[in-house]
Amino acid sequence: MQTIENVINVSGAAIISLNTVTDVTLAGGKKNPLQGRVTKKTTGSNVMVFANKNVNGYAEMVKRHLEKEGKNPDSFKLGDRVWGERIAGTPFVAHKGKKYMEVIFLSAGKTEYIIDGVPASIDSIQGLGQPDISESSQGGLDNKVIVRTYAVDSIKSLKVGSETFIF
Q1: Euclidean distance between CA atoms 131 and 134, whole angstroms
Q2: Domain residues of the chain, as ranges?
Q3: pTM to 2 decimals?
Q4: Which pairs from 31-38 meet CB under 8 Å and 24+ separation?
Q5: Nearest residue to 87 via CA among 5, 2, 22
Q6: How far is CA 145 from CA 32, 76, 138, 166, in A?
Q7: Using the 8-state DSSP alphabet, how is residue 101 labeled?
Q8: Cβ atoms within 10 A of the Cβ of 11, count?
């Protein structure tokens, strides 16, 4: 049986396409009748995975973007990880007994929300707000490099080159 760890075996970086299913946390806590019943299914998100073997892929991309914008790439200083521990030479992060895949987000796929297994409109989900995800200043970068971290068990399939892998 293929595992994500076996499929994503990069020495530098690779562009892949992801299909994910994630649980949605809603505002209102336990009082929200939909809490624990909503999932988000996303298909076709394009991301870059990076191994960080010789350089940090994220830091290098931020510096390249700064140069393109005519800004000083030395204005960016990579901070420490806020949570989890990067598994050396891979795009994976370990945290509290779970494994995550860290990616640079390139383009969004198609998103569908599901309540109790039935597709639902965004308007029908009370307590669904857009998370306020704060990106670092990245040295004053206008075109931010977006990093996302997916729980490995939320990745249902991915496409590497012309090959699709289902998990």
Answers
A1: 9
A2: 4-166
A3: 0.83
A4: 32/126, 32/127, 33/126, 34/115, 34/125, 34/126, 34/127, 35/127, 37/115, 37/116, 38/113, 38/114, 38/115, 38/120, 38/125, 38/128
A5: 5
A6: 34, 12, 8, 28
A7: E
A8: 9
Whole-number pLDDT of residue 85 = 95
Q: Are 148 and 109 in contact (CB under 8 A)?
A: no
Q: What is the pLDDT of residue 134?
A: 53
What is the β-pairing status of strands 85-86 and 118-120? unpaired
Q: Which two tokens stand for residue 11?
A: 């020495």
Tokens describing residue 107: 């383009």
Which residues, other chains included, contact 106 with Cβ-Cβ below 8 Å and sequence gap of 6+?
15, 46, 47, 48
Within 10 angstroms of residue 19's Cβ, the number of other Cβ atoms is: 20
Q: pLDDT value at position 121?
A: 93
Q: What tokens were used for 18? A: 């992801």
Low-confidence ranges of the chain (pLDDT < 50): none
What φ, ψ does residue 151 adopt, rounded to 5°? -60, 135
